Amino acid sequence: MTNTKPARARRRFNWAPYLLILPSALYLTLFFAWPMGQALVMAVREEGVLLRLRGEAERGAPGVGQLPRGAQVEILDRQANLIPPDELGQPNLITEQWFHLEAQDAAGATLEGWAPERRIRVREFGEDGEPIGGTVRAVLAADADPLTAVHAEPSEGSEVVGHLETGTPVAIFDQATLEIWYLVRSAVDGQEVEGWVQSRYVRVFGEEAGARIEQGDSGRFTMLHLQRMVNDRFFWPAFRTTLLLVVLIVPAQFVLAIIMALVIQANLKGSSLFLYIFAIALGVSDVAVGIVWYSIFTQFGYLNSILQRLGLIDFPITYLSANTTHWIIIAIWLAELWRSTAIVMVIVVSGLQAISHEVLEAAEVFGANLWQRVRYVILPMLKPSLQVALILRTILALQVFAVVIVLGGGTVVTVLANETYRQYYTLRNVNLAAAYASFILILSLVASLFYLRVVRTQQEVTG
Amino acid sequence: MTTAVDTRKPRVEVAPEVRAVHRRMLRRQKLSRALTYAIGIGLSLWVLVPILFIASMALTTPAVVRSYPKSVLPFIPLSTDTLEFFLGSRGILPGITNSIIVAVITLVLSTLIAAPAGYALSRYLFRGRDIFRLSILAVRAFPIVILSIPLAVVFLRFGVYDNVFSLALMHTALALPTAVLVIGSVFASIPYEFEEAAMVFGSTPFQAFRHVVLPLVLPGIAASAIFTFVLSWNEVFAATILTIQNRTLPAQVLITLQQSGDPYKFAGGFFMMIPALIFIFFIRRYLFNMWSQVSK
Predict the structure, then answer these.
(1) Which residues in chain A have Cβ-Cβ distances shorter than 8 Å to B279?
(2) Residue B117 CB contacts under 8 Å (≥ 6 apart), including other chains
(3) Is B146 close to A437, i.e. CB distance below 8 A?
(4) Which of B22, B43, B100, B251 could form a disulfide with B247 if both were Cys (CB 3.0 to 4.6 A apart)?
């Protein structure tokens, strides 16, 4: 560990190292810590279930109450307001077109301002198809104001700069799209609330007499996703299989890796070749590994070919089918063993290289046989490396994914990572996917803490 | 019984019992060496035979791939038909292009971000150094599966979903912790005295870094970069979640696997292995350097 000691120690405060680590720290915060926290939040939050009502038809206006999704409301009033252009693409918007126009009012004064499209009959179009002129429509309702108001800005809430009579010709030189706000009233828990909501959150029916809250703008804490995850019919099989795979894979590959490491450490001629061969699987993708073992276990694959050529079977056996899930598990086990033993081997070899040769020679001189040397000298000294390898491997085994899909198809035998993927991709349930992912995270943390406590390193025991 | 031994004389009369013991030990040593070789060869076969199987299936004609029982002798007849069929399948060539783009961006981005941090870890003693180092180590104890879902939501919101560049951003996050630790260990293996000596002879700190340290660390950093490339090339979970049209090769193969025939599968499996076989050969010298540091 000598080379981890920093070579340069400065007395004056030095900004350089902080500037150097800043990009990494920022990047990991942005793309690692933040999404991880976000996933946990998504697992226990229900977004869009509450809708805030505003005191005025304006985004920043103070809230006057809130309504749950699905609540029936009565519409009392409407108002059109300008919204940022990038929000126009949202579904469910009820919009209104407004014209920027110029006209002479009854008194002969020139008026410039905005009026809704429904009050203007367009009669002239420009070369590009845009309306450039028209007349003011008649107001049909008997009790309504027969004059059409012209507003200073494209919003009903804005100041009225004047009025136009029916039939007045107008020049149109611009238009804008506005969203409708509704003044709604409803009773929640016996209490009446009244306030403004944007059209995007409600489904209006009738002639704008009533509406239902379709979607909220704020969320709340919920156990719903976790409950649905636990009640999901794939949850327990996935959980069981994942745990089973961890228990099958991790110990077996440690035995295998330690044997590999001892072979390399024996310093035979050609041990660098052994090293390369043992390390090959380190870089092989898990999809490829799944396919490799599929070629062996598939019905017309290598295993059956060899057995048949040896005369042990007369016709091919089916291994990878719904009726033979134990064979699928065995195939996954072998594939994972084949693929990920390499990383443990590399960690164990680098741990072995740190053990001084004197210690091993001393053990040999005093007549310890191979088993005794492994059990009483090598394993205790390897503990720190083994701890790291255990944590790393268990976490990776909890996330086993592609191999399972390739060998098991993803439905007969399923694992937690596969359920995360299925919830996200096939069932389009982001929150449930986040719940599964969070569950994997919690399992990983539990496993890490367990190893840190149980496999104590040398210093902790002596110190 | 060794009282008569004169150390200046190489040849001494040794009692027959001692010789017998010596012979026995030699025999035992030979035996244990032979045993070690046998185990080593056995384990090598465990690793190599499956690769041989898939390679011989990929490098033959589709008719042979479908035949049963399969010949255990490989490469009969040797042909690139199966591989060509795979490469000609829909979505494979774009998948390869996407995979390479993602892996190269990941390589460049993670090396550029990790190198300064690795240098800082190995050359400076600063308050918070241990916390930074520990948190980098701890990051590896978190499952990466969990990152994909929230990132997918965010990418969707910003309109960069199903995009090779946003996938590369995610892969960079996966590769960064290892890259920082490995590059740190590479810098740490170059004694600071080299830089000091250069500065004594009048070079600026930057010149010392550029002309003395950089040439020495470049191979190690290259090894780390290759490892990053392989990591991104192989990554499949995030790739299947974050892309739909612009799939990378592993994602494309995984998604189309159930509807495909054996020739496609075997050729795909073999093709995806090739970079690993080549790259691991080049960086094998650095593997232990890397992991001895990372596992501390």
Answers:
(1) 283
(2) A20, A21, A23, A24, A25, B132, B180, B183, B184
(3) yes
(4) B251
Average pLDDT over residues B205-228: 86
pLDDT for res B140:
76
pLDDT band at B12, cuts 50/70/90?
A: low
Answer whether A265 touches B (CB < 8 Å). no
**Residues B138, B160: Cα–Cα separation, whole Å:** 29
Interface list for B 225-264 with A (CB within 8 A): 230, 233-234, 236-237, 240-241, 250, 253-254, 257-258, 262
B82 neighbors B62 (Cβ within 8 angstroms): yes
Q: What is the reported pLDDT for A129?
A: 80
Residue A335: how many other CB atoms lie within 10 Å: 27
Closest CA to A379 of A390, A394, A392: A390
CB contact under 8 A, B145 and A285: no
Q: Give Cα A156 distance to the centre of its chain.
A: 41
Q: Which of A32, A287, A234, A446 is nearest to B148 (CA)?
A: A32
Nearest to residue A302, comparing CAs of A319, A326, A285?
A319
Rounded-to-integer distance, Cα A335 and Cα A350, Å: 24
Contact A280 B51 (CB under 8 A): yes
**Per-residue pLDDT reduced to its tens digit, A103-146:** 888 888 888 888 888 888 888 888 888 888 888 888 776 666 77
Q: Is the peptide bond before B69 cis (omega within 30 degrees of 0)?
A: yes
Contact status, residue A198 vs residue A123, Cβ threshold 8 Å:
no
- A 10 A CB-CB count for A282 gives 22
Q: Say whether pLDDT at B4 is over 60.
A: no
Q: Is the CB of A7 less than 8 angstroms away from the CB of B191? A: yes
State the ipTM, two decimals: 0.87
Q: Is A215 exposed, middle or buried (0-12, 13-18, 19+ CB in 10 A)?
A: middle
Check CB contact of A349 with chain B, cutoff 8 Å: yes
